[in-house]
## 1
Amino acid sequence: MPEAPEVHNVLTYLKDQLQDAEIFKATITHPKLAANLPVEEFCQDLEHQHFRGFKRLGKYLLLELDDLDLVAHLRMEGKFLILNSMAEVENLDPLKDRKHIHAMFELSDGRVLCYKDTRKFGRMYLYPRTENWQCLPVFKNVGKDALDPSLKETELYEKARKRKIPVKTFLLDQKAMAGIGNIYADEILYRAKISPLMPASQLDLADWKRILDETRWILNQAIEMGGTTIRSFSYGDGHAGSFQNELAVHGKEEGAKCPHCSQTLVQTRINGRSTWYCPDCQKEK
């Protein structure tokens, strides 16, 4: 699933390509993609709207239109790509590509913004435009973005101090802090020298400061490098990230060594999620 750095790079791509572009016609072929309105109403409302602003909260994209807010969550495999014409869309491989395009936004300049999703897990939401966009219903259970400068370690400490779940699980809770997924949680805890098995309630304020500092350092580095491409993440015309080359622990093969102490890394599962860590550098308290 794309995490904050990957979604951030998708947003930058869309902003570069779509600023002030007009939607001439919208078509959605997978009804569940339009999550909060009937498909016909969803598509009709989008006609003749212009892309005016581009925002992100955690793993969500928010595209500000003239009168509407269009929110998208890519889930596991969702991708946006922009083609030069409908003819180019029709020339796509019907089995490999075209069958997985579930939304098309034909622009007045002839280009087509396509949404491709092989697993059909992605969702889109449409709301009347509001300046207070973080209070939209879709964000009801989404906490502050991990890169929000107003987020402080004291907030994380207060949210965690009564929760006995592993800190790795806590970091994946989008209500606690938005934008972190499985890959970056492993890397954050490694750099913070905290075991992913530690109960969140046992971490002190200094621990949470380290976690927050490392979160911001890692996410910003990943954004600069285009995100992490493991398996299938890409956006636009095949753009992919390179931060996977910087990963210290996540996804390493059996027998891989810690880059700091040369101890053998441990791979385990925490609440069903594959997890990698160094048992020496990340000792439990």
## 2
Amino acid sequence: MTAPLIVQPGFLFDRAAEWNDDLPLLGPKDIAAGLPDDVLGSVEVLVTVGSTFDPKLIESLPELRLLACFSTGIEAIDTALLERRGIQLTTAAGVNAHDVADQAIALFLAQRHGVIGADAMVREGGWQAGFRQGLAPRRSLRGRNAGVVGLGRIGSEIASRAAAHAMNVRWWGPREKRGAAYGRADSLEQLAKWADALFLACAISPENAGLIDRRILDALGPRGVLVNITRGMLVDEDGLRAALSEGTLGGAGLDVFVEEPTDAALWRDIPNVVLSPHIAGFTQEAGRDMFGQLRENIRRYYAGEPLLTPYFTEAAYSS
């Protein structure tokens, strides 16, 4: 096999020695310098990241047969175009579901229990100054309601963690899931009205951008907490900030934002929100396993074997 493999993200190309597949690799600098027509006409596999993908590259690769995505998120990839051209797509589906679910629960607990504010109070002498005397007791998690939007790999992991905290769990998605361990709400709004915490764990598509608007935030209400660890485009951020500022929403925990990095000034004076910089799946183990899954999908393609995580046979309202 002589056709080169194009690796679009630099951080993966820089790990060329780890590929160990005798594949000729072309990276970002080669792309920027301009690839010759004979190379463009021979490439069958392109490696990318779904949030920063350059769609123009597909147009220049007439023989492209596999788009191998390092990440789980594919919001910048035109999947309809891939289907029309018969290009297969693989992702990191399932690799970091445990880690992302852990971060979702961490954000929820930090917000719900006021951990960051309590830490600051202790460090600033608030305890000694009688801080606890003016502190309202929080409600126990036991018996509270956890709603999960999207009961895929990540959503299922979040649900099991919420259940372990003695919370009641329900979920919603546009399609039933056979054998689901939890009850499905009739609608997203119904789930939000029922929930004390609403966890977003659904896959991203142009159709569900802005899924969480003021109507859903109002349904969640002044005692509800929204947690988003999937993608920022799911949420009307202006509406979210307004709801938090007005107190019509109880709180939020966010690992993802509409624009990343997010403008710090947007959040500086927003109360009752805990933020992290898109690190939910950023663990040592996940990085290693995502790279391994990427390479295995590519190996299987060239060997003519079934792909490990083919998107077009698994794509659903889950991640």
## 3
Amino acid sequence: MIFTVTLNPALDKTAQAPNFKLDAVTRITELRQDPGGKGINVSKVIKQLGGESVAWAVLGGNTGRGIKASLEDMGISCRAFEVEGETRTNLKVVDPVDDTHTDINEPGPVVTDAMLDDMLAQLVAEISEGDIVVLAGSIARGASDDTYEKWVKACREAGAKVFLDADGDKLVAGIKGNPFLIKPNEIELGNMLGRTLDTDEKVAEAARELIAQGLDNVVVSMGGAGAMFVSADRVVKGGSVKVPVGSTVGAGDSVVAALAFAEEKGMSLEDKVKLSMATGAANVMQSGTQAAPRDLVDSLIEKVTVTEM
């Protein structure tokens, strides 16, 4: 089973706003709403790929109840942990004229460590050997800085393969728990190690350093340049597929979703690379954070190049 965990979910509103400008009145021409937050996005993509997951999320108020209902309408099981206050709403402004994407994210409600500890205990009790746990996104206000480190360790000790998709100090803290896989981009990875990673060789070497510290897999997203997949014995680069851009929000989440799905299915590294890169490209073509259909993903798989480094 795949479990996704979203500690700071959101209702994502994606607005099409041609000629968006600061200090000016903007007219929205299209608006869509999607249940969001990185872990929830992962669950949505897994569903479209043909897999199953349980989305664990901290949800509050009418917005939280709406997110849970939307997920269940999609056929995604949701374990909601109620928090006081209202789950945040994030606004994504897409300007199709100037080709810009602007995110305006609310901070979200406040949680307590006691609440998260209870949530973690319940998750650990449901984990079986070989399950996959995806910890993704920001951590709600009020949580300790070592929250992801604690969750990674507990889930790993329960027998799960832990995928961690966070950034900044949350990623650095989480790595201390030795997750099975992390997915920084090259800028985040460079910031962690205190240097600029401006070539494939530098990216691969930086990822190898983390592998040497005890990680199993490091996947480094590199935007239009593709992604680097690094383990103890392999370094493979997956090429990006050129597609028309609908929204870049959630593109990285879709890659994580495909990797979790592929890991559960026991796919080869080459097939994991192809599926994850094709899934990322297909989801870039969508509006908002809706998940791309499997047939679109399949149509892009053979366009992905796989290069052994």
